[in-house]
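Entry
Fold in token form

___
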Amino acid sequence: MATRDAPRRPALIRELGAFGIVGLVAYVVDVGLFNLLRFAGDPGLLEQRPLTAKVISVAVATAVSYAGNRHWTWRNRSRRRLHREITLFLVFNAIGLAIALICLALSHYALGLTSPLADNISANGVGLVLATAFRFWAYRTHVFPVGPPGDGLTPPPTDAGPRSAPHPRSHASAAPAGRATRTPRRGGRRRSTRRR
């Protein structure tokens, strides 16, 4: 069992690393925009509407996340039709968003923790961790699955450069059997030999 799973570990580690970097960039976009909408200015544009601010920030971060994961994290996997792939991606992101919103709503409205710190801990701390774990599983399993072309999947693009054309004489290097060939001989004479 351990031997069979061993070759998968480097690929899984690479995926986790790339997913983490893409997620970090999306996180900066999400948190930065969330706080910009809520607390930039006096009053902030969406200071009294934390859920709306979170929806907008997550929507922008989602676009960043899709581009990074499609073209880097899982770039070597077979592709679905674009509209189906994006639809699945958005569905699972909506579920991840719901997880973060539930955490924020429980903290802000149910528990009455309305400070900027409390909102960030609930939405961008606990909610983000739970949503990220769910998204990694969903992207890897359903959005960018492993599988041969077919069933709606197309081969991934190859990064290999153009191959050099074979030398025109490569296919004629060996003389056909039975054909006489001449080899030079000392004294300017040629000796005829026949292959068998």
